[in-house]
Amino acid sequence: MQEQRLRRGDKVEVTIDAVGPGGEGTAAHGDRVVHVPGLFPSERAVVVIEHVDRQGPRAWGRALELVQARDDRRRSPCRHHPEVVGRGEGPGCGGCPWMALSDVGQRGLRKAWLQQLELTVERIDAGAALGYRQSAKRVAFTDRFGALRLGSFAPRSHEGAAMTGCLVDHPTLAAAFAAIERAAAQLGIGAVDQGGPIRAVWGKSDGEAVLLTLIVQAGVAFDPDPLIDRVGPLCRVDGWSLAEHEGQGNAVRGGEARVLRGLDALQTTLAGAPLRITPLGFLQPNPEIAARAYRALLGTAGGEAVHGAFALDLFAGAGLTTALLRAQFDEVRPVESYPESAAALDVPAEDAAQATAALADAVLAGTAACPDLVVANPPRAGLGATLCKALLALGAPRIHIMSCNPATLRRDLDRLSGRYRLVELRAFDTLPQTPHVEVVAWLQLQESR
Length: 449
Hints:
The protein is α/β, with parallel strands linked by helices. The chain folds into three domains: about 1-70, CATH 2.40.50.140; about 135-265, CATH 2.40.50.1070; about 285-445, 3-Layer(aba) Sandwich (Rossmann fold). About 20% of the residues lie in helices and about 30% in strands. The chain has helices at about 105-115, 170-185, 225-230, 285-295, 320-325, 340-345, 350-365, 385-395, 405-415; strands spanning about 10-15, 20, 25-30, 30-35, 45-50, 60-70, 125, 135-140, 150-155, 160, 200-205, 210-215, 240-245, 260, 265-270, 275, 310-315, 330-335, 375, 400-405, 420-430, 440-445. The strands form four sheets. It has a seven-stranded mixed beta sheet, sandwiched between helices. Strand 8 (about 135-140) and strand 9 form a beta hairpin. The longest helix has 17 residues, at about 170-185. The model has no long low-confidence stretch (mean pLDDT about 90).
């Protein structure tokens, strides 16, 4: 007898056997893989099906009853977590999908996932599990009482979820976001979903100083001074900026930021290199662990710094790796495709694959030197087939890769295996309470046979 296909509203009992891309548990059921937020491998639960994908063999469900829980499961310490938030309070925030699992259990899951990808690490380097995030974006929305709140979109929706007092935010940012909510309520300033001016707020902190950027809807009248004045006595804010958002999309960056008061940037350091973080510039959410990862990226598996005549820095971004490499190499060539970042590095915007292929041709022609080290910090899509082909042609003695997506790292390592030997991998818990893990890979050119 053929098994009945899943439909919306069905209640089924499933055993979670893996983790999905968003940190949700997944379970095979008939011809579908059911994704269930808040469940972890080896747990069994009764689930109600909320969505069946018509484009693929997937379905999404919500846990109704936990039949068998893991020993390392805990009650989430955050009052905004979906398992904790009370009825009538709106949806729970899904930003920390693994908060119901102990910190040790989380690292165990990450290690197991890496092992499934044949990426073996001895341990995952970790730091503070809470209060670590020093850069955060908050979307503005209107709560059931008509007040402006700062939070996130609830999972798989555009409904606002509160995050007041977020436990993973650095205390300076948590205090600043709470102060804006309080001041906006006192002044009657609203969110854009009810015709108000505020779309989002960006916050950055170096652990002491705080930069806040208000993202406002273009064309909506707004005087920021009363809000800034009201926030002042409530918390520390060292710099205020404003950026206008055109159109009706969900993007929260806005256009060029205009400094309103105080600092126009944070002057800080990461891994020993100076950084200037502008109001809309990138700052690592977890600087402590990111610094450890960057130091590993520019060193050897044994911990020694790599020195040489020439280093190629692919996906150079804001220039952190370039600055660090210049202390170790006579010449460093940064390659960055984003025009604003490339201009800050005083180089033309270049695609990493095209730049590497051109350098490989020049090395072959004898008109350029081969780099002693190639450093790459690619986006989630990884290096890709074209860049890997160019790296194989270039043949640098060492390639060091920092990856935020172990799945694409695995593919890149396979592509490079024809000429390169994987020396070692090291993993870093850069975003605790989430499935994210940063991996540094050291590769060495193999002797020709």
